[in-house]
Amino acid sequence: MRGAFNCFLFPLCVLCCAGSSLGQSITPIWDIYNEDNSPLPNNTIRCLLTDNSDDLWVGTDNGLAHLSNNSWVIYNSSNSGLTDNYIRALAVDDNNNIWIGTTLGGLLKFDGATWQSFNTSNSNIPDNFIKTISIDHFGNKWLGTAEGLSYFNDTNWITWNTANSSLLTNNITSIGIGLQNEKYIGTINGGLLYFDSATTLVGNYDIQNSGVPDNSALKVKVDSLGKPWYAGSAGGLFTDQGNQTWLSFNYTNSPMPTNSLTTLELDSKNTFYMGTQIDGLIIRRFNQDWSFYTTFNSSLPENYILSLAKDIKGNLWIGTYSKGLVKLKEETLGTASLNQISALSIHPNPIQKSGDVCFSRPLKNPKITLIGSDAKVVHQAFINNTTNHFQCPLIESGSYILIVECEDRFSIMRVVIM
Fold it and tell me: Which tens digits make up the pLDDT trace of 82-141?
């Protein structure tokens, strides 16, 4: 069993079709685009970008899609200078040029009319598999590849790898640019790399030498205060508070349903949007409220999220693994119709199968729902009287989300069944 046996009261509603902060009802509005209802060329959305005009660029497993004013343009290797249809990374520079990373075709630059290609045959790029692209404050391109980290200033290339530097891996996943042009770089199983405002590697931090919560960071974002945040593949959400003092949000110390994150987005209010593989979308707001959207409690078509992007209008764009592109708009409507059951807890926790579970106070006609780690309902029961207990069902041992509904109130907590 993962995690600790703590009980967490979630500070917001994830019932029905909304995630709600305390005292407010947040109604989500979902628009879903896929191969069946739109020109989207593929339902696997690897990367997303909003450009300087707030247009959306969508990288898929079958080409690049551009959405502007509700109009689509699709680029692929048959109708454009795109050299590979497997798109893995997107970035935009100050001139609104789109930089595109592919799996087999290297790096491309698209200015809206012409294409320029950089690959292992015509440049010093170390590999044609481009996993991430970031552009620093001086317009320099930083590329994460399967064979190391590269810097490109439109003329010259510099590459760092395990052979010529202190890198512990060549697998570079994400690059965040700091307020002073510092670079914070995530890897797979190689810890974190820090570069100064130029091109000097000033730190390589991992679990062993500095206590990093996770040696693999799939996404790096820098907040409005210049603090780097990392989406760990097994360590949750974490940041360096300075001098490698780590603050993390994970399964055991927060309402997060998982430590395994796939991607991360930050908006100007420092609201965190986190994608997961089986637990859908996690939102941690600037006021420390949390929201959770899954296929169980919302119109999200799939819980496996690969990419996220926020546009100027406040929409969150969500790229899924196999169910297409999703636009989420959240609207605050005032007082919630469902409120928390104040200070409700249960005991014991962990719970024995078929054992008696007691509420901290009697509840009238409670409804009990247990949700498994795959976000599916595994048990539901209605109790038609006032009671202070219920019987645990005979289900598989593990960690579950327990939702208790009573009249117009609810409580959500994590439980472990032994």
Answer: 999 999 999 999 999 999 999 999 999 999 999 999 999 999 999 999 999 999 999 999
The answer to the question of residue 18 being in a domain is no
For residue 267, give the nearest of 210, 314, 204 by alpha carbon: 314
pLDDT digit string (tens) for 19-29?
A: 333 334 578 89
Unique residue bearing structure tokens 């200015």: 111
Q: Residue 44: give the domain boundaries.
A: 25-332
pLDDT in tens, 262-281: 999 999 888 999 999 999 99
What is the pLDDT at residue 17?
33
Beta pairing partners, 204: 193
Query: Is there a single domain that holds both residue 239 and residue 137?
Result: yes
191 closest CA partner among 202, 170, 205, 181: 205
Last residue of a domain, one of 316, 332, 348: 332
Residue 286, both tokens: 């600037």
Question: What gap in Å lies between CA 290 and CA 69, rounded to an integer?
Answer: 32
Distances (CA, A) of 359 to 151, 340, 356, 411: 58, 15, 10, 11
For residue 405, give the amino acid letter.
E
pLDDT of residue 338: 44
The pLDDT value recorded for residue 374 is: 59
* C-alpha closest to that of 176 among 234, 240, 133, 238: 133
The candidate with the shortest Cα–Cα distance to 260, out of 226, 217, 297, is: 217
Report the side by side order of strands in the sheet with 130-135: 130-135, 141-145, 148-152, 157-160
Which of 283-292, 376-385, 404-413 shows the lowest per-residue confidence on average (mean pLDDT)? 404-413
Q: Which of 304, 332, 360 is the last residue of a domain?
A: 332
CATH of the domain at 355: 2.60.40.3080
Write out the DSSP string of 161-182.
-TTTSS-S-S-EEEEEE-TTS-
For 208, the 3-state DSSP assignment is helix
Average pLDDT over every residue of 65-86: 97
Residues 175 and 160 in one domain: yes
Count of domains in the chain?
2
Instruction: Tell me the β-bridge partners of 265.
Output: 273
pLDDT confidence bin for 369, thresholds 50/70/90 = confident
- Report which of 353, 362, 414 is spatially closest to residue 389, judged by C-alpha positions: 362
Residues 131 and 209 grouped into a single domain:
yes
Q: Which amino acid is at 133?
A: I
Q: Are 326 and 343 in a shared domain? A: no
